[in-house]
Amino acid sequence: MNAKVLREGRVRLWLEPEDRGLAYGDGVFETLRVCGGVPAMWREHWARLCIGATRLGIALPEEALVRCEAESLVADRALAALKIILTRGVGLRGYAAPEVENPTVVLTCSDVPALPEPGLVLRWCKTRMAVQPLLAGIKHLNRLEQVLARAEWNDPGIHDGILCDREDRVVCTTSANLFARIEGRWLTPTVANCGVAGTIRGWLLAQGAAVEAELSQAQVSHAEVLFACNALRGILPVRRLGQHDWPAHPEVLALRRRLADAHPAYAFQE
Amino acid sequence: MNAKVLREGRVRLWLEPEDRGLAYGDGVFETLRVCGGVPAMWREHWARLCIGATRLGIALPEEALVRCEAESLVADRALAALKIILTRGVGLRGYAAPEVENPTVVLTCSDVPALPEPGLVLRWCKTRMAVQPLLAGIKHLNRLEQVLARAEWNDPGIHDGILCDREDRVVCTTSANLFARIEGRWLTPTVANCGVAGTIRGWLLAQGAAVEAELSQAQVSHAEVLFACNALRGILPVRRLGQHDWPAHPEVLALRRRLADAHPAYAFQE
Fold first, then answer.
1. Among B194, B154, B192, B155, which residue's Cα sits nearest to residue B172?
2. Is residue B115 part of a domain?
3. Which pTM does this prediction carry?
4. Nearest-CA distance from A249 to chain B in Å?
5. Same structural domain for residues B14 and B142?
6. How far, in Å, CA of B120 to CA of A104, rounded?
7. Along the 270 residues of chain A, how does pLDDT read in single tens digits?
8. Which residues form the domain of A85?
9. Cβ A151–B85 below 8 Å, yes or no?
10. B82 to chain A: closest CA residue
11. What's the total number of domains in chain A?
């Protein structure tokens, strides 16, 4: 892994121990797919970072500076994951924000795991997500629920787990949004109560390819077909969920092609 | 502020940007009152840190090492706040814990704000706490709810705000546990759904001075008397909550004396 920290106009290799990102998870992050040395869908990721920062009242860093430093970090990477963390910066003890905020930006570059062929094997997580509309939708740094959910299994044959909220509504997987085809329509859970409004999810909704809906575990288990999606790996067909198996589905392939046409970073070998 | 970071047997002044404490809030913390260069109630704080780390599955550092480094950090401080952060350490990208965990310990020392006399002025926060029994009770690093609640006011005449959960039960203030005297008994909210099991709260319950109960906003507003408590400042009388005022109460004074007798770090000027 390769990292740098931007603070007060300087580039460093380390973080101050008094950063509020550590103390409280007081910040937001983005994970971008890097293809041919270029971060994909920058505009969409920056827009979501801004929405999250605004929701938390965190001052925004200069986009051009962050982009320039991010691009130089990943310039020689054919395929990689770029993570951008924005925090409220260093603070005194206590929850009150400092009077003058100097946000911290942490950039890290790491490998992208291979896409499992012919698709993901998923499980149901026991961990239930709390309902918190104040934090729903944004990609904030309070991720203990995902950590606990991911700790439920260590079988490498299971690629991800699906989470429900405490009212038994399906929300997402630990690291991706979920789409289910039911009665001929693609549905995906809302992110009004919990979950993250993913960038690929946003693209699919904007394309009219899917609509938001409330989904139960039974509906997802008996869906005609499922896929997960996230910025790092695009659209990921689901092969198995618990005891349910799905063969490859032409509609998922069609959506993957459509995404690759719009954003060539998501091109794939057929 | 004064800080050090313990990792892999070494003492540093900075944190690695890939620490999971930053990435996910994947850790727990303690805030201790330091009096005469000595952290008060070490045993109680260490015990709670262990409970939290165990709940999250984080490996425990060696107590003697942490205590030694903490004591050397605060040795020359007559009165201070010692914060101990324990994280799962550095990880690769992704929620799965690293195969070999090397926890990070961050120690910081800062000033203790003066106790407002003759007592706290509180408000009700609009921010509602999510119900999440998996994280309730422990002092984990996912504190955005407290940050949002504390951002609701900037009037320095308001010392703290009381939070309710999404089902309208009173939980705590942003930085303390809350006790209400109702029909002659001291009651404090349970921490089974959200909130932190504070060390002073634990001491009071163990003394038989109070019992856990479900409390509504109306009950708290119309209580005979209120106090807040946390490890940093002990028992804090409440003077006002919204439009309700309370005079000094002999029972709060008696409890403060009892705490000071048991733990002299909480001695106060009468």
1. B194
2. no
3. 0.97
4. 28
5. no
6. 33
7. 699 999 998 999 999 999 999 999 999 999 999 999 999 999 999 999 999 999 999 999 999 999 999 999 999 999 999 999 999 999 877 999 998 889 999 999 999 988 888 899 999 999 999 999 999 999 999 999 999 999 999 999 999 999 999 999 999 999 999 999 999 999 999 999 999 999 999 999 999 999 999 999 999 999 999 999 999 999 999 999 999 999 999 999 999 999 999 999 999 988
8. 2-110
9. no
10. A93
11. 2
